[in-house]
């Protein structure tokens, strides 16, 4: 049980918030952990069925939002907690769809020559990672939709991690990689007058 607590703290919840969430799901810690996993998998399935590319992230954000409301829910809410998660997931999906439909303006390099510094920074920063971290991040973001879920499952089995632990590990590597790329582009911009990509 302590393992789940450590993971949730990294995903934006305090220990107290996650403790309250588990206690709300079931007084028995083992059953609470089982219900948590079942709810998370169900949420992923719901988001996948609605063609969401970020099903795992949306499921985790749904859980986080519910967890932050448990202190107000636990005394008054009547019914199966899973149904409340599903209600929040519906709102999450509407928010996701609204954001996806919003125009996104992207300024991209006009030629291969202009694109080259960005690719060089990506290659440079990937090379700064350990071989294990580099392999993990490339595999983690390689696929989409169902193929992505299957790939993540295979990674979890090979690395003997649960879904949350794998996501936290990938997130840490991504943050490190993004910081390196921004610093690299900043240096390149200073020396070669390169404009940053706006996404």
Proportion in β-strands: under 5%
Computed structural class:
mainly alpha
The count of domains is 2
- Are there runs of 5+ residues with pLDDT below 50, and where? 1-10, 193-199
Number of strands: 0
Estimate the global geometry from the Cα principal axes: elongated
Report the sheet with the most strands, covering strand number, pairing sense and barrel closure.
none
Order of helices and strands: HHHHHHHHHH
How confident overall, as mean pLDDT?
A: 80
Structure write-up:
It is a single chain. The chain has ten helices and no strands. It starts with a helix and ends in a 7-residue tail after the last helix. It folds into two domains: 2-101; 112-192. With 199 residues, it is mostly helical. The model is unreliable at 1-10 and 193-199 (pLDDT under 50). α7 crosses α10 (163-192).
Quick rundown:
Helices cover 76% and strands 0% of the residues. It is mainly alpha-helical and 199 residues long.
SSE layout:
Blueprint: H1 2-10, H2 15-25, H3 29-49, H4 55-67, H5 70-73, H6 81-101, H7 112-128, H8 131-140, H9 145-159, H10 163-192
Helix pairs in contact: 2-3, 3-4, 3-6, 4-6, 7-10
Characteristic key phrases:
199 residues; mainly alpha; 76% helix; elongated; disordered N terminus; disordered C terminus
